[in-house]
Amino acid sequence: MTVETLNALTLSRTIAAPKQAVWDAWTQPEHMKKWACPAPDGVQSIDADFRVGGSFRLVMEVPEGRYTAFGAYREIDAPNRVVYTWDWEEEDHSVGETLVTVVFEEREGGTEVTITHAGFPNVEAKQGHEEGWGGCLANFESLFA
Question: What is the pTM of this model?
C-alpha cells in the first residue's frame, strides 16, 4: 500500500442525468439537504457560501449521534469541478483538515461523479469516510431515479 492510497479514497458513480443538473444537485443547499448525509434524511441544517473562499457547515444526525462537518471552498470550475476542505467540529470525530475534490464528466447515459477525498492520517479514518461517502452517493443517485 502506498502513502497515496493510505491517505486518499476515490469513489465514482454515473448518474443518469445531464451534467448541469448533477452539478446543481451537488452544489445547491436545497438539494444537498436530500443527500449530504449517509443516513437518509439525516441532514439537520446546511449553510453554504458557494464561492471560492466561502465556507460551508453541515449538521447531520446519524444513529451514532450528531456530527457537524465544515470547510471552505478552494476551487470552483462550474459545472466541472469543485474542491473544498473538510473537517468535523466534534473533537472525538475530527481527523484534521482533509481535502475533497469532486469532478463531473459527461458520459454516455449521464454524468460521472468522481470524489477524491485526501489527507487522512490513518486507514481507519479513510475507511470511515469511504463508508460515509458511499451512503451519500447512494442518496445522491436516488435524487435522479
Answer: 0.94
